[in-house]
């Protein structure tokens, strides 16, 4: 029996599987794609002569140089948004683009494991940032269903990393050594291609010797990751080029202005300019990685007027570009420590009280990021952690746990990631509170006076935008109906968050204790009919 997990990343994605070996052992392995590697670029390319022929992965990434207008990247950042991508005269939602990536991963795994038709992968656990909002999570679930998965579950990426660490510790026979004395606390610093999370979890052994883990606190930013560094590096290279090539200042300044809006889907850009910037951003991605091992790197690009530019950038210059982000990281880290101290009655007052730091996500391989973490946490990160695969492997482990076939854990619990509630009289009334372990909450709603006493109830999530400003994300509208419902009557509203940290809402009339007929309007959630139509577009048959 095998169980599967997917790390659906902003820049790269990975599918893994859990497999039982003998009576008391199991292993977790990544699947290699058709290029023979485990990481598949999260890139989708629509061929020019036949846009029904869709290419996913490394080949799509290679075409990005020449056909940026036909290539879609970084879709993870748009999950949950009501936007579309246009290719020729067709439009595609983020759910559909993400489904193409998931379908590719599913197909690679089924081929690699020689699965026969009709016996493919039905169940999947997909990792999402701990900071993902409800809309983004719902869009991820819908994408997986479009791709052909029947049963879809989610796990926060830092939590998956902890599960993988527990498994690896068990594998080398060191559970007692690592987790044997009371509660042990671990920080996960997860910085990927497009998102950032920092999370604190406790791990302890119960009387049977099984590890138990619980999330204590978390914080993050779904708009912060390696792509930010790439965009900043691209602008830096252009600014340096303007100084070094004054005769081409006008052309370079045009590129620089457009570079500031490069990853905005709603900005129209000259095709030649976009082509130049697409080649340059790719050069910056490669150069960023190279600067982790080299002290300097020459960035070369051909502008839209045919001129070749060569710009030398030293590692110290690149690291200077990261400094503003360090402050953002510290803000989230301090938030986690403050919350953890309160929840543990002061047992966690400083980073000296923690047992270890797990670095995951490709961007943690940047030397300056590693050094920052060492300074903040006062200790070396735990060695041997695969920054690229640990989250995906944790997803497969969680899949086996969900199906009752893995005895690796005694218990696993999470916290509410954000405030959830309703808007009443223009005021947000929280029902589920951020950081709480209680996944169920109740609220008494008084039916307001109105020409229509069945005015919809607005469900909302307290969140923030890309600049960090607090906002209310309107999740859905609840329309309710009952023949004996009048102004002033009390409705009992129940919020419940499931294991996937998805929200479920129930409404009951208090006096007659009768369930109310409700209809929930969610602008992001796809209907069954929409999912079926999208499957037809992808050629998925289940």
Strands, helices and their partners?
Blueprint: E1 2-8, E2 12-21, E3 25-30, E4 40-41, E5 43-46, E6 54-56, H1 58-63, E7 71-73, E8 85-87, E9 90-92, H2 94-112, E10 123-128, H3 134-146, E11 151-156, H4 157-171, H5 175-179, E12 184-191, E13 196-205, E14 211-221, H6 226-244, H7 249-259, H8 271-290, E15 296-302, E16 308-314, H9 315-343, E17 356-360, H10 367-377, H11 390-402, E18 411-413, E19 419-424, E20 427-432, E21 440-446, E22 457-464, E23 470-481, E24 490-497, E25 503-509, E26 514-515, E27 517-521, H12 528-538
Parallel strand pairs: 1-10, 10-11, 12-17, 14-18
Antiparallel strand pairs: 1-2, 2-3, 2-4, 5-6, 5-7, 8-9, 12-13, 13-14, 15-16, 19-20, 19-22, 21-24, 22-23, 23-27, 24-25, 25-26
Helix pairs in contact: 2-3, 3-12, 4-11, 6-7, 6-8, 7-8, 9-10
